[in-house]
Amino acid sequence: MAIRQVLEIPHTVLSTPTKPVAKISDFESNLAQDLIDTMRASPGCVGLAANQIGIPLRAFALDVSGHKKTTECHGLIVLFNPEIQTKQGLETIREGCMSVPHFTADIPRAFEISLTGLTHEERPIEITTRGFEARAVLHEIDHLNGLVFLDRVTNPSNLFSRKVYLASPDR
């Protein structure tokens, strides 16, 4: 449908918890496609929450296929009203975010999760995943709860300037 602008901190929609989706209508179906299109058009992006494109609804798209840290993958996931059911283990790994373009941080998150939600066809679904995909899901659900990864930084020494690689001028 459309590639949308990704909002950056300190935009207020990013720090406000999102609202549940009451019914999946044409608007929500279009939102799902916009999330997918925007995510796929953004280099390095593996997930995108609705509020990152200015829509304060509980929805996200995610696809960790082909990412070097992926060990478990359910392919393209678009969920409405996702809720974490269980979390197990803990692992600290570096994270970045399109809404926080200048920093990365080492963030502790659960290693294995199970979650429920609705598909774009309003079918209930339960997903159990682990590793990088679980981390990416938790990152997107944080967005839906009005949090960015900076809210999870426990020690300033875990925060880093994002590296920017520019092509040399003679190329």
What does this protein look like?
The chain has 171 residues and is an alpha+beta fold. It has one domain: Peptide deformylase (Peptide Deformylase, Alpha-Beta Complex). The protein is 18% helix and 31% strand. It has 2 helices and 8 strands, in the order αβββββββαβ. It has helices spanning 26-41, 131-144, and strands at 47-49, 59-62, 77-88, 91-97, 100-109, 112-118, 124-130, 159-161. The chain has a 5-stranded antiparallel β-sheet. The protein is globular and about 45 Å long. Residues 165-171 have low confidence and may be disordered.
What would you say about this model in short?
With about 170 residues, this protein is α+β, with helices and mostly antiparallel strands. The chain is about 20% helix and about 30% strand.
Descriptive tags:
single chain; 171 residues; Peptide Deformylase; 5-stranded antiparallel beta sheet
Derived structural class: alpha+beta
Secondary-structure element order, N to C:
HEEEEEEEHE
- What does the oligomeric state look like here? single chain
State the end-to-end distance: 34 Å
Major sheet description? 5 strands, antiparallel
Overall mean pLDDT stands at 93
- Estimate the strand proportion: 25-35%
**What is the share of helical residues?**
10-25%
Silhouette: globular
List the helices and strands and how they pair.
Layout: H1 26-41, E1 47-49, E2 59-62, E3 77-88, E4 91-97, E5 100-109, E6 112-118, E7 124-130, H2 131-144, E8 159-161
Antiparallel strand pairs: 1-2, 2-3, 3-6, 4-5, 5-8, 6-7
